[in-house]
Amino acid sequence: IKTMLRSVKDLIGYPIETVDGRIGKVKDALFDDRYWRLRYIVADTGTWLPGKKVLLTPYHLKKLETGWIGNGIKTDLTKEQLEGSPGLKTHAPVCIQYEEEYAKYYDLPSYWMDPYLFGGSTVPPGMAAEVTPKSEADRQAHEFRMRQIEGKHLRSAHEILGYHIEAKDDSFGHVEDFIIEEENWRLQYLVIDTTNWLPGGSSLIDIGWVEGFDWRNKTAKVDLLRKQIEMAPRFDPYDPVNVDKHQKLYDYYGKPRDYETPAAPMF
Q: Of 175-179, 200-204, 261-265, which has the strongest mean pLDDT?
């Protein structure tokens, strides 16, 4: 099976074009961590629609080989159609839902001009809030809503970049990038930056070996030992990413390659 793979990190910042002109740039990519499918591209519309970030599904994006080669994303929508697209708040990623619930419970203002201005932090530096005492019923309702949010699966690639890696026996490194298949928008690999521990760059693991992300602790849990990752074949981001070329990765880990995409809607 031959398919080209692309960097999600590189995608962020690409200009977005409608059929009648450019309308902004890619702000983020939202994906489902159950099926590892990219669900939305978040478009920052800049001065055209000030303050609004709209969502684009893969259904409205043209083939990546035509949209990405020129460092841009092309859509089949007009500016008018895009203006009517749902805003980011309609399908907010888990990290934003946490911030909103936290702010609501602790009587904080809506302090984020940009959803990622403070990263995953729930309180901006230096901000103090006068909290109204809450009843036990309020506290229980808050905890229930927080647990509901934890059960959701829409994740922000932008926010997860930088999460620390929690291996089966140790914590080290951080999430550097995601690699996605250009044909069906499925995340295929996670890139782990190990430069603080090892010279020579990054390691690549199959996205299926990621057990989950912890927003509160900013960690990505993987089903591998630290030594396995440290000794894995090095990943060169300047070398074209090709599925066939990485067969040695699966040989090294002694794990089979699963070409089957889990049954799930494309968007």
A: 175-179
Contact assessment for residue 174 and residue 193, using Cβ atoms and an 8 Å cutoff: yes
pLDDT at res. 242: 61
Mean model confidence pLDDT for the chain: 78
Decide: 183 and 171 in contact? Cβ < 8 Å: no
Q: Which amino acid is at 231?
A: M
Mean pLDDT, rounded, for 144-167: 86
CB-neighbour burial class of residue 8 (10 A; exposed 0-12, middle 13-18, buried 19+): buried
Q: Closest by alpha carbon to 38, among 149, 148, 235, 188?
A: 188
Q: What residues have CB less than 8 Å from 138, skipping those under 6 apart?
A: 105
Q: Residues 6 or more apart from 189 whose CB is under 8 A from it?
A: 5, 178, 179, 204, 205, 206, 207, 241, 246
Q: Which residues contact 86 (CB under 8 A, 6 or more apart)?
A: 54, 55
92 — phi, psi (to 5°)?
-70, 140
Distance (Å, whole) CA 162 – CA 219: 9
Residue type, 36: W
| pTM, entire model | 0.77
For residue 141, give Cα distances in angstroms to 93, 138, 145, 147, 153.
21, 5, 6, 10, 21
